[in-house]
Fold each of these.
Amino acid sequence: MFYMNRPICCNGAKSVASWALCWLNHEGRHEEFLTEDEKKEYSRLNASGRKREWLAARIALKRILMEANYIESPIHCHIRKDRFGRPKITLGEEDDFRIMNCSISHKRGIAAVCISWFPEIKVGIDVETLSEKPFRLRSAFVGKGDSLTIIPQSKEYYAVLWACKEAASKAMGLGMLTDFRKLCVVGDGDRRFSVSENRQERTKGYYLFFGDFIVAIAHRHPTIPGDTRAN
């Protein structure tokens, strides 16, 4: 198993969130990471690759929480999807619980996860491969104002652009039917980016390369205009 965990800091301040990558070379025996309900959900999955990604995401989320001393044991939290299909972390029991924002993405066996330490900060994460697919589909998501400091028209450019928009859409709470052409991504030379909608900045983030993978992490803070939502 491979696992790495990194903090997300805003304006040089303390960590406001954390993200992690996890890869399992086989399913193995990781029952100790799952609650009884999660074990039942896991047993309903069929494809072995999908099962490894699903399990890797839960292991990563729970390891982040244990390392941050939010929980003593992985069975002291539950990871469920809300009615919109977005993952949420529940700490505690029914009579005394807390909901935490999180985001999950996976691609070719790699699981990427992100957790916000504050209810007012929304997070989104996406992992993509350096493939030709985003280049072929560029007309469906590239907008006129998009700009990244990567060689234009390259497969890296469009793969990174897609990952940034996907991560931002999760942080913004947008659905799958969102027109990504209306999300304007502008990057700097330090692999950081901002995303605006209707000329109003909505979220910020950064991306990095991990072998043949691209990971984009976005966070949305209430100080960004237009964002006043909280759990």
Note: The chain has two domains: 1-118, 120-231.
Amino acid sequence: MTKNIKPHVKSLKEKTCVFLVIIGMSSVIYFIATSLTEKRMEEISFINQNFETTRGIITKKSVYKGHNIRVKYKVNGIIYENSDGFNVNDNIQEGDSINLKYSKTKPELMITEFNEEY
């Protein structure tokens, strides 16, 4: 004895609800990404107002979900480590020495020579 199982046909109300949830989630992701981009642009602007340059060492290179490097550098005897992006065409490896700009007032903020705003 076999049962005929009919597929559940979604009502207009269910389809609308799913659509609104998808729109809501997309909006949240968009606003988070926009906020992070704006924050980074403000940091870069702050760095460029009053900066010094130094050399740093790439401690980690990541190409998973974006391209970024972690860089360790020393300012006034204090070692900092921060990250910045790079272009896929940049030929860099962990252990490479690179140029960077850091904020004189907040040395934990920096941008590397691979940043378009450098």
Note: Residues 10-118 form one domain.
